[in-house]
Amino acid sequence: MDKKRKREKINYRKLAGEESNVNVHIGKIVNNDFDEYDEFVIRVVKDGRSVTSESFRKEGLDTPIIIKDKADSIGMVVPKNKLTLWNIANEIGYAHPISMIDVTTQEEIPPWTMSCLVSYFQRRKSMRRKGISGDDRILNQISLEFSKTKLMRHFVSPRFVRELDWIENAWPNDRKVKDEYPRVQYYCLTSTEGCYTDFHIDFGGTSIWYNIHSGMKIFLLIPPTPQNLNHYESWICSETQQTQFFADLVDKCYKVSLNENETIIIPSGWIHAVYTPQDSISVGGNFLHSLNVKMQLQIHKLETRIKINQKFRFPFFIHMMFYAGAYLLSQLQQNALTNIEIDNLQILVEALSQWNVAPGGDALYKGSFQEAAQYTASLSGFQTYSELLDHLVLILMKHQAARQSNTPFSEIVSNGIEHQKKDILLDGTTENADNDNKNLGIRLKRIKSKKSKVGSVRDRLKKRLSM
Ligand SMILES: O=C(O)CCC(=O)C(=O)O
Ligand SMILES: [Fe+2]
User: 427 pLDDT exceeds 60?
Assistant: First the structure.
């Protein structure tokens, strides 16, 4: 379930002239002025201990964060002594295939091996020392996922990432131990001086963490406002992408330098470009979570509309959504979700209701998302995913009722919700209550008849979660 991190084709070489080995946009990153930002736009954190999953779960994860503190302050493990590319090659294996991006064209070249990468770094370094630019292409390496390699013994992602990440918390354990899960959690990026990755949004609207192991990087960050996302979609699809520096099309673009040992968090949907002013090794990963569901779904839909090749997308995105629904139900049943997570869950439930179809032939086919839905429903003690969704809707209604009437959730649970169901819709409005109540009424009846099951559902979930 690997995923390569390549962009769609752009003919930059033609743009820069056939002989060029630099990207045309780099000059602008170095010379242009970018917008000023305050702590409401991008947070710069000096004390990493304040960066916790608890705080994100209460306040959301919408702004980029630069953490200028030691790795262990955010529960991240990095090696005590810096690793060279040679050390990395020893851990990964010199024959390991490596995908390289030509910085001028932003296109993938035919696959290399780790040993080619090491020689390439050596050659560029010695050319620089001798003051010759040479005709070597500048090549970037941003897609080496290393969780299956020995390099893994040197790194652990930030604690809050592990605590929020749906792959960690919602993907079924027995499938994970069989290696059946999206491998997007640990990337090692090796970039020589002069590398550039043009504006993009990370796959599936994942959030990202990057730690600069050695060297430095410059990030250009553009917020995912509806207007900016519209511009992005048109730019990606248009011919002008080749000549147009995307930052010139939007209202605000922020420039952030990330130095050795610093960590950046880029939230879901943020449009970003990255320039490498000196040889750098960084480690990072992508994660989906319960705090940006709307944006994650929006980017997933955008990728579908602009026909991004499946191999550049989050692997098994829809499977992940079904697993997340089951996981969040278990959390909800334990009254363990914050208001932000409950709001996000409502959005997820709406999407799942659209994707969820009665289990047909496909439900038997391992690998289909219908099978994933059926599988996670059974693990949670339901006969079908529709039943699980019904249950979710019911409890969400109770939560909403509790919030609207300022009553503790536990009281609403003990009083039942029959008296409230006439007035409350899932989105918190009362409009068209009659029609919706018909549907909810039907769902509620089905759920009531299965009431005796609830205890065992909870037990099974607990068992699964403690695995
Ligand atoms: O460091 C780079 O060149 C690109 C990093 C990035 O944004 C990515 O890999 O998605
Ligand atoms: Fe990225």
Answer: no
- The per-residue DSSP string of 121-187 comes to HHHHHHHHHTT---SPPPEEEEEEE-TTSGGGGG-B--HHHHHH-HHHHTS-HHHHHTT-S-B-S-E
Residue 448 pLDDT: 40
What are the tokens at 4?
């390569």
Sequence-ordered alpha helix ranges (H) in 253-359: 293-305, 317-333, 339-355
267 Cα–ligand 2 center, Å? 11
Structure tokens at 130: 């001798």
As a whole number, mean pLDDT of residues 245-262 equals: 97
pLDDT, tens digit, 9 for 90 and up, residues 20-29: 556 789 989 9
Distance, CA of 77 to CA of 72 (rounded, Å): 6
The CA distance from 417 to 99, in Å, is: 56
pLDDT band at residue 361 under the 50/70/90 scheme = low
- Over residues 99-113, the mean pLDDT reads 94
Q: How far is the CA of 118 from the centre of ligand 2 (A)?
A: 23
Where in the chain are the domains?
12-312, 317-465
Tokens of 234: 């048109």
Say what the pLDDT of residue 375 is: 95
Q: Whose CA is closest to atom 1 on ligand 1?
A: 274
Give distance in angstroms: CA of 45 to centre of ligand 2: 21
Ligand 1: which residues within 6 Å by Cβ?
5, 140, 142, 189, 191, 195, 197, 202, 217, 272, 274
Q: Whose CA is nearest to atom 8 of ligand 1?
A: 142
Confidence tier at 41 by pLDDT (50, 70, 90):
very high
Q: How far apart, in whole angstroms, are the C-alpha atoms of residue 45 and residue 377?
A: 41
Q: Ligand 1, residues 3, 189, 257: which to mutate, most atoms within 8 A of Cβ? A: 189
Residue of the nearest CA to atom 5 in ligand 1? 274
Name the residue with the closest Cα to ligand 1, atom 3. 197
- Span from the CA of 187 to the centroid of ligand 2 (angstroms): 11
CATH of region 12-312, choose from 3.30.200.40, 2.60.40.150, 2.60.120.650, 3.90.800.10 = 2.60.120.650
The mean pLDDT value for 317-322 works out to: 96
The alpha carbon of 296 and the centre of ligand 2 are apart by a number of angstroms equal to 14
